[in-house]
Amino acid sequence: MSLPETTEVLIVGAGPTGLACALTLYKEGCRDITIVDAVEHGQNSSRALAIHAATLEVLDSIGCARSLIEAGATHRTMKVWNIGDDHGATLADFGPLKSSTRYPFVLIIPQTITERVLGDHVQSIGIQVLRPFKVVGVQSDKHDKNHTSVFFEGGQTVKARYVIGCDGAKSAIRQAAGVDFKDPLEERSTTDHNLDQIVLGDVTYTKPLPRLFDDPLFMLSPTNLFLSVPFPYNEGDANRTYRVVCGVPPSSGPPPSQPGKAFLQDLVDNSGMNTVSSKVHGPSNVTINEVIWSSRFRTHSSIADTFFKRLEGDQGGAVIFIGDAAHIHPPAGGQGMNLGLRDAISLGPILAARLRSSSSDDSPLRSWADRRRQQGVTIIHLTKTILGLASVQNGGIVWMWNTVPLPILRSTVRSWSLWILAKSTWLQSQVAWRLSGLGNK
Ligand SMILES: Cc1cc2nc3c(=O)[nH]c(=O)nc-3n(C[C@H](O)[C@H](O)[C@H](O)COP(=O)(O)OP(=O)(O)OC[C@H]3O[C@@H](n4cnc5c(N)ncnc54)[C@H](O)[C@@H]3O)c2cc1C
């Protein structure tokens, strides 16, 4: 299909955020919506795995929660294992959230399936994602100052009243609009620690894992953090897939861009599965059978200076940024895609009301943008805190109390904290509450 010459709303990017945005605008009565994506087919990597309660609440409002839950697997708890102990503990218990949500669990579902479900819903309302159309620039329309001209790689131009940048972390829309993208908490930067660089892989093993691995499980060793998350499993599947995530200390140098079997097996042996399995069952020598997908990234955070901008001061075409185009942060707690989906679904009613109204007052959109930005900063804060607690600082063999150094290993402090957590169901529900997003919708 070809691009239209004009549209009321142009959504750039058909990742989870762009698809949810199209659905919510449609639900609010908008019909002149165009959604484009640079690539011929959707992404095929699993990436974000967790959908939390606050996101399911809003996904329900656009009719998608039930199909996502049916396609994924729900988990009431997340577990943690301090290597050296002989039993694990509950880190987060989502069960007690039932007084605040219909979804007292974390939903584990690979991003590919999330995108497929959202994409099916978009198709069912008659909206077609136009591909491959790559945006290369935007500017205020020369003839109609309240519209934006959007330029495409193939030479086409589309004129839109509102342009929504859902085009990911390197957003061409954000860059063309001249909006800064930087870490709002630079002073809390988590530099030079063992979780600065992280590898992740979706793997199968040569034999079934102990039951303990049926829930998401964090394994803490004195020098690292290893996370194992089981993929949804259907009767009859040959092998269960697990996501493994592990820090790579800076002293080991940069990890490969697509870590292979031997690299991941080394992490499983030294920081993950085998250290726990051997404690429970004696030497088990679980080996990786197949690496289905793997990647690496450096943990850093950035947020757009504003999520709403008119291209010429208070006038000119209007551009909006949501999802990774507006904020990125470490994957701790599985928050990124959740935040993007909630940006998209919260924008729908505000933008739809603006499109219906004859007023030129941007203040509802500006306050929406301020609110969402503040929520983004809160999540960046949360993910940095989680990483700080889970990490072991290089050379950080003493723990600081205010500015006074105490001769206590940071990993010992971490073990004490876990011991307290394991005894307190209240703390476990507090961890679940923070991760669920229910206090920061
Ligand atoms: C390697 C990796 C691992 C990750 N792991 C996790 C994880 O474990 N947990 C977690 O919560 N999150 C994870 N994330 C983050 C998560 O994937 C993102 O938060 C989520 O994809 C954001 O969705 P989005 O729709 O905003 O952007 P994206 O998913 O990035 O989608 C952007 C879309 O815009 C399109 N596009 C880009 N530029 C243009 C252009 N110029 N013109 C037109 N279209 C364009 C792209 O083709 C793409 O389809 C990971 C990300 C990566 C890269």
From TrEMBL:
Which keywords label this protein?
FAD, Flavoprotein, Oxidoreductase
* Pfam families, per database record: FAD_binding_3
Residue ranges occupied by any FAD-binding domain in the UniProt entry: 7-374
Q: Which GO terms describe its molecular function?
A: FAD binding; oxidoreductase activity, acting on paired donors, with incorporation or reduction of molecular oxygen, NAD(P)H as one donor, and incorporation of one atom of oxygen
Gene3D superfamilies xrefs? 3.30.70.2450, FAD/NAD(P)-binding domain (3.50.50.60)
Ranges annotated as spanning the membrane: none
Coiled coil (residue ranges): none
**Cofactor(s), names only, from the UniProt record:** FAD
Q: Which InterPro entries match?
A: FAD-bd, FAD/NAD-bd_sf, RIFMO-like
Instruction: Output this protein's name.
Output: FAD-binding domain-containing protein
